[in-house]
Fold this protein.
Amino acid sequence: MTSPTDQRPDLPAATPVPPAPGAQAMPVPPPPEQVRRVPRGPRLAALRRPGPAIGLTWLLLVLAASLTSPLWLPYGTAEQDLARRFEGPSADHWLGTDDLGRDLLTRIVAAAGVALTASLVTVLVALVIAVPLALAAAERGPRVERWTSRVSEVLLALPATIIMLAVIGVIGVRTYWIMAVLGVLISAAVYRVLLGVAQSVRQRLYVDAARVDGLRSWMVNARHVLPGMASVVAVQAAQLFGVAILIQSGLAFIGFGPADPEPSWGGMIAVASRYVYTAPWMMVPTGVVLALTVIAANAVADGIAAHAASVSGHASSGRRSGRVTLLGATHGRADDVRLAVPAGAGTPLLEVEGLRVATTEGPELVTGVSFSVGAGRVVGLVGESGCGKSMTARSLLGLLPTGVRLTQGALRWEGTDLLAGGASADKALRRLRGREIAMISQEPMVALDPMFSVRSQLVAPLRRFRGVSRREAVGLATDLLAQVGIVDAARVLDSYPHQLSGGMAQRVAIALALTGEPRLLVADEPTTALDVTVQAEILSLLRSLVTDTGLSVVIVSHDLGVIADLCDDVNVMYAGEVVESGSCEAVLASPAHPYTAALLEANPHVPEGEALPHRLPSIGGTVPAPAAWTSGCRFAGRCRFATRACAEPLVLTAAPGVPVGAVPDHAVRCVRADDLSLTAAPEEDPR
Amino acid sequence: MSATLPTPGPSASAVVPALEVRDLVVRYGRAPGRLRRRASAPAVDGVDLVLAPGRTVGLVGESGSGKSTIAKAVLGLQAVSDGTVTFRGQDLTSASARERRAVAADLRVVFQDPYSSLNPTRTIGDTLAEPLRLQGLGAAQARERAVEVLEQVGLPGEVVDRYPGQFSGGQRQRVAIARALVCRPEVVVLDEPVSALDLSTQAQVLNLLADLRDEHGYSFLFVAHDLGVVRFLSDDVVVLYRGRVMESGPAEEVTQRPRHPYTQALVAASPVPRPGEQAERRLARERLGVGSASTASADPAGCPFASRCPLATDTCSTERPALRLLGEAQVSCHHAS
């Protein structure tokens, strides 16, 4: 077959193709300078911190000094001055002299070359063996991996010291060869570490994408897999380097180093140890240099590891990151209209008022959210990612991630403010967590410990919360599993989490949440990871728990269908605040905020019997980053109805249609709410 | 299951299909030949599908239905145990790496997860240029084409020098689409391309895909689990359960008038954002009486869905139903009407 480029003369065509009609140009964040530099040279960036930088400088300095030593050292390594034995530091001998009056500085520096380069040989040999094997085993799967791993196990089982002594017996004291043998022996351990990394990098989809591109197998490894492993390889190499120096010195110390008068660090320490009572100083210079060199290698390793962690941490939290300082975010929203207390009056179970959550560095992630949850009610929080709905839910349990905290607001549990008197949210909520308020999350496997059976995971909290015996607890656990719709409870009790399907695991997670007989369940995207059929089952289960036991639920979801299915009340969140709030029926059937209306229109599940639109109405752009939030309408930048008035600070007001003077049951944060009619058929987007 | 039944609808015309899958079987686990008898149940079991040029076929089903496995088998990322994969009349079933490379520019993919599908250590430009350079294009020309295709997917051309870490999920998915389209392919496998996106972003990306297809005539093999999304983008739909085709036919027919109890359960389970209608749908779903996914058990002899099916009879557990034409759709059920 001819090259595909031959068949398609149009391929290199330079004429720009106009953007597809529906493809609005998206605003792209300006390039932060440091991001440009980071990914190319993770190792270099790592070494900008002081510790690793000093470590690397030390290593390079020692190596350079050693390699250039014949040029500048005042003494020969074997030059004896028997009149000046065992001397301390002096102007002639900066670090003193040894038992034969030889200059210590000269000998330390001269020995450094072999010490460092031979250790480098160990590192290189180990990596040259381990890296290709790990790559091949990860690529070829179990069939190859079975063999490489068995061989590595055999290597690991060999007594390295004895083998090295045997090698010395055969080939004599040839430092570089001995250190190469050490590299072979140690490569097995390096292989084990790198195999795991290579396997996890190969899971990433960009490796599959490169294979689909038609990239040759070794190119896939070199371009996509190896760079993903670079940090770990570098850390391993730096640590290994330190280990190799120690082993090399150890061998020299017990007499398997270069023969006198050839200097070696281990040999010099061995000599010094003979005179440790009469001339203690002799030990100091060599010992300190050896220790500093090993510490330097480890400091470099630490630096690389810390950098790798920060890069991956940055990647995973990338969507939420922002390094801009706090805006004057004191714009009060205290005038927000209060919604009517929902049915089943009396004191609501939980009242959230003016909740603010912020990162410690600055940007606020939630700015003044208020809602209340009555007994037996289901309240939904809905919005796109980055709108603060999960943060709001997590702050109800005092379970905010590190670096994020609740800064202001009231959480009233049956009328008592848990945060009164400056109590920390975590401490105040610890009393309620598990017993009164429980949580389920998107990923049920996170809630379940893979090391323990379902039985022990249910029994432990049952005994703690309900103070029952083990036997009673097992009975209760069986009842709980039945309550969450598990038919063969006995089998599931004996299962481990990995043996459960996603839907089953979520049921068990719900059972686990119910062990403390909570009155409020916080469900953070509980069905997002599940199939639609399983999602429907879990939603039915939650509904039956609400009707049968009077449980209250706060559910976070990005799916308006889930909200419509389960909720009594809904709060639509956008950019850290509630933009529309009210009964589910009112908000979804007659949305008063353009954002709510736009979310509804973008849903491809049109009413039964209706034809799908040719193109889905979509909201251009993305949710602004927290640092860019203003006191005006935060949706204005994406809103087709935006006017100049939208820049003014605004509060929640009664939605159109709520009788004047009545306590509203539907509120909206939009200055134009009264002149818009959003329930009409979707208009053509003017853009 | 009959291997000769064509997929109905206009796609079954006389033109050479862009992509054709016949009687595909994929088994995970042990290599074929060794202990074959103890091999696990196949992940894909005798699936046929035909993708005509310029059309879109949707693959839907629960997790474990084999939809992503079919996509991987088509792309050569998963070994095929039996059956054939034909691309423009050329058999790719056991294509060598060299033969695969020859079609790499014409058979492309967009993956589900926009975060792990872009190499974080390479610029957008590097990623987009890679397949072009493999086709023998010079660096400058590849870059030019990368800028052009970025503009096509609605991103400013200057982002070629940026790294993926600076983009949101929706923007990354646009880049992933650009990578699929950069060599002007014929067939693009879309493996759940919008499942990881927010609703508003999902609508943007779906519109973009529809625009690009209408304008350039790409053929899409579209894997998804949301029937609303599938209905929006697909001409034909293949509904899978445990590696077998339960129902296939024109998208409107299958999603609006589902005949197989399993398809009916899938349709009834996807929630709509209108509380009143959703309450009715919920009741309708409960009336269907389809068993829970967690209680399913597989019986290799009969219909895989029998243990969950409200219509099941003894025949269903002993006799495997063949696909038969009902209305405009093919249905694999003894009792559907």
Notes: The CA atoms of residues 259 and 336 of chain B lie 6 Å apart. Confidence is low (pLDDT under 50) at residues 1-13, 31-37 of chain B.
